[in-house]
Amino acid sequence: MTEALRIGIAGLGTVGAGVVKILAARGDYLAAACGRPIELVAVSARDKTKDRGIDLGGVRWEDDPMALARADDIDLVAELIGGSEGIARELVEASLKAGKHVVTANKALVAHHGTALARLAEEANVALNYEAAVAGGIPIVKAMREALAGNEIRSIHGILNGTCNYILTEMETTGRDFADVLKDAQELGYAEADPTFDVGGIDAAHKLAILASLAFGTEVDFANVHIEGIEKISATDIAFAREFGFKVKLLAIAEKGDDGIVQRVHPALVPEGTPLAAVSGVYNAVAVDGDRVGHLVLEGRGAGEGPTASAVLSDLVDIARGLVVPPFIVPAAKLKAPAKPLMDAHKSSFYLRLRAVDRAGSMAEITRALAQASVSIERIVQRGEKGRAGGDGSGRLPVVFITHETDEGTMARARAHLAEHEDVAGTPLVIRIEDGELR
Amino acid sequence: MTEALRIGIAGLGTVGAGVVKILAARGDYLAAACGRPIELVAVSARDKTKDRGIDLGGVRWEDDPMALARADDIDLVAELIGGSEGIARELVEASLKAGKHVVTANKALVAHHGTALARLAEEANVALNYEAAVAGGIPIVKAMREALAGNEIRSIHGILNGTCNYILTEMETTGRDFADVLKDAQELGYAEADPTFDVGGIDAAHKLAILASLAFGTEVDFANVHIEGIEKISATDIAFAREFGFKVKLLAIAEKGDDGIVQRVHPALVPEGTPLAAVSGVYNAVAVDGDRVGHLVLEGRGAGEGPTASAVLSDLVDIARGLVVPPFIVPAAKLKAPAKPLMDAHKSSFYLRLRAVDRAGSMAEITRALAQASVSIERIVQRGEKGRAGGDGSGRLPVVFITHETDEGTMARARAHLAEHEDVAGTPLVIRIEDGELR
Asked: How many structural domains are present in chain B?
C-alpha cells in the first residue's frame, strides 16, 4: 500500500456531506480498490457550527477555502461550492496552479470555463474531473472519456434536468398545468425558489455543452447552445402529444451537422416506446449514438446527495489509482474551435398548436397560410368539445398540426405569419418532434 | 508523447477484425487521448489467407498464438479466440506470467477461471481487462469497477443474452412459438446452430458470475449460478403475461441474501413500465441498485462486431493510459469465498400455468391442492374459448394462477404435487415474477 491521497473538500452542503459519509463508511474498501487510502485532511464551509450528521474529528477546518489550495498536505481539492464565478472559480484555478488535482460537481463552472481550466490542469499535469457535474450518478463523463474512445460519436440525446422531467411527468399523470405543478415541486424541494435555471433549460444546457465537447473534441461552447425551456408547455400539449403517440420531454441534443456541431435544449415530442420516452420523474438519461457501439443509453438519478456523492467518489478513485487524463480527452490545445451552424438549418417535423377563431372557413384559411409558408401537413386534430383535451368553451378551437419535415427557418416564418393571422387567436406554440435518432 | 503500447491480437473473427479496423481508423485520436500510440505489432489466427476486410500490412503474422505471449516486442495480448479451456486459457495464462497485459472478450474463461487469472495478473502487476466479456458495448465492467466504487451494491438485474431477448421479443410481437422463432433467429445469424449456450441461459450465467464478483467482492463462482433457460416458454405464456401487465424476459440476477449471494438466471415476468421490460430485440441491459446512486440502468448492444470491438478498445485505452486495477477491484487475496445460500430460500410471487382436465369440480380440486401446499392465490385466469390465448380445443383448459409471495421450496413442492394431480394434464409451468427491485 502506497501513500494516501490527501484531499480537502470545499463546500459541505448535501453533496459535500455525502462525500464525507462515503469516505467514512467505505474507507477500507476504497483503500483496497485503489491500492492506497483516500484521506480527508481538511474541509472548508461557511458555517462551522452547523450539524451535518458527519464526524469531522481529526479533520482540519479552514474558514477560508483558498487555504486548501495553498496547503502543503493536500494533493486534491474537491470543489463542491457551485457557481461559475467567484470563490468556486478562484479556488479551482488556484488549486490547479498549485499542482493539486481538482474534482468538481460544478456544471456552470465547467460549461463556462472548461477549456481554460483544462489548460491549467494539463500544464500542471494534474486531473480536473467533473463526473458529478453531468447527470448526477450516471457515469456519462467516464463513458465518453474512456469507454467510448473507439467510437466516432454521431449524436447525444439527453434528459439532463430532473426538475423539468419531474414537472412534465407530473403534468402528464395528473393533467395539471405547469404553474401548478411547479409550485408543488418547489414545496417538495424538487425545484428551487427561483426555478429559472432549471425550467428555462440553462442547467441542461450547461451539461450539454460539456458532453458536446467530450463527444466531438471541440472546445466547450456554452454560449452557442440554443436554449428553450418548458414554461410554455401546457397540459393540453401533453394530452395532444399522447394522442399522437408521443411524450413531451426537455431534450438536450448535440449532433454533428454538415458544417459544425448543433447544440440545442428544448422541449420535444419523443415517440413512446423509445428509451428516453420511458424516463420518468426526477430521473435523467443520456442516449449516445456511436459509430461502433450503436445506441447506448444510461439512465439514473441526476441529482441528490447519494447519486452526486457517488459520482464524486468515482473521480476520487480514478485519481487515487493514478489515472490522469486530459479533462476533455485530448489535450486542450488539440480541441477544435466549434463551428457555429445556424439553428435555422436544423430540420425536423413539428407539432404546431394554435387556437382558431370559430367561424366558417377559418380552418381553410389557416391551412392555406401554412401551405403558402411552405409547411406541409401530415396530420390535423381539432377539438371542439368542452371537457376534451384543449376545449375551453371560449369559442376558440385548439387545433394541432403535425408537419412533415421542414427546417427551423421555414417553421419560424410560418409561426410568425400565423401569429398575425386574423383566424388565429394568440401566438401558436411550436414543439420539435425528435424521432430519427432514438432507435 | 511517450512510447507506444505494443499489442498482439489472437483471433481475427468479427471482434478481432473490428478491433483492427478501429485501430486503423482512429489511431491519431487514440494517441492524443492516451498520450501514446497504440501500435498493432502482431496477429495470430487460424487462416492467414482469409479476406477479413482489414489491412495487415506491416503487422507480423504468427501461426502460433503462443508466440504472442513470448514476443519481446509485445506489451499486451488481446485474446479474442474464445472458450474456457484450450488455447485461449493457455495463451492468457502464459501472457500474464510473461508480464504482459491481457485484454479478453472471453466470458466463459473469466467465469470459470477469473479468480485464478486475477492472481496471475496481480503477481505480474499487469492488467487483465474483460469489458467485452459482459454485455458487449455496454460499459458495465467499468461502471462496477470504477464509477460505483462509492456504493455498496444491493442487486444486479440484467438482460445479458441478446439471442434470448430477440427470441422473446419476436414471440411477443408475432405470437409465434419458441421453436419457430429460434429457427428464424438461426437463419438470421442471431442464434448459433447449437443454441444451447444461449437459450439454455449458460451464456447469461457466465456474465452474471463476473458481475456478481465485481458487485459483491466475492470470488467468481459460476458453479453456483442457478440456471434455467427459455426453452419452455410458449407464446401462450407471453400472451397471458401481457394480460397481467408483464413482459417475459430472461433475467440474470445477483443479490445479497441474508447468508450469501444469490445468483440466478431464469425467465421472469417483469412489470411493464420498468426499464428492463422496455429492452427489446437483441439489446442488453443491466440495472444496478447501489446504496448511494440508487437505480442505474445501462442499455445497449450486447454483441456484434462494432459493440464488442468498442468494449475491447475501452480496455486498451485504459491500459495505454497506465490504469492497472486488480481485475475484480480488490486484490484477489481479499475476495471472499462466496457463501452458497439455498435457492429454496428465495421468495417471490409466481406465475403458474397448467392445463386442467375439463370436468365439473376440477378447478375446485386444483385450488384446494394449492391451498394444501400452502400456496395462496392472488389471481386466476381461465380460458375456454378456441382461438383465444391458450385455447387449443383439446378439452384441457389452460389456467394461469398468479400467487402471493412464497418461497421456492414451497412452490416446487406444489408444482410436483400438481404434476401428479388427476385434474391436471401434464407438468405445470412456473415462472418467477420480479417486481420488487426494478423501481
From this structure: 3
B150–chain A Cβ distance below 8 A for any pair: yes
Residue A194 within a domain: yes
Residue B217, chain A, CB below 8 Å: the answer is yes
Three-state secondary-structure class, residue B99:
coil
DSSP notation for B192-217: -SS-HHHHTSHHHHHHHHHHHHHHHT
- Closest to B149 (Cβ–Cβ): which among A30, A143, A304? A30
One domain, residues A98 and A214: no
Domain co-membership, A107 together with A203: no
Residues from chain B that touch A149, judged by Cβ atoms under 8 A, are 26, 29-30, 33, 313-314, 317
**Average pLDDT, whole number, for chain B?**
93
Residue A191's pLDDT is 87
Per-residue pLDDT at A395: 63
Tell me what the pLDDT averaged over chain A comes to. Answer: 93
- Whether B334 and chain A come into contact, CB under 8 Å, resolves to yes
Taking only residues 257 to 296 of chain B, the set having a beta carbon closer than 8 angstroms to any beta carbon of chain A reads 273, 275, 278, 290-296
The boundaries of the domain holding residue A16 are: 5-133
Q: Find the range with the poorest average confidence among A324-333, B191-200, B377-386.
A: B377-386
Total Cβ atoms within 10 A of residue A182: 24
Q: Does B29 touch chain A (CB under 8 A)?
A: yes
Q: Report the percent of chain A where pLDDT is more than 70.
A: 96
Prediction ipTM score: 0.94
Q: Of B292, B304, B309, which has the smallest distance from its Cβ to A22's Cβ? A: B292
B101-137: b or e for each residue (b if 16 or more CB lie within 10 Å)? bbbbbbbbbbbbbbbebbbbbbebebbbbbbbbbbbb
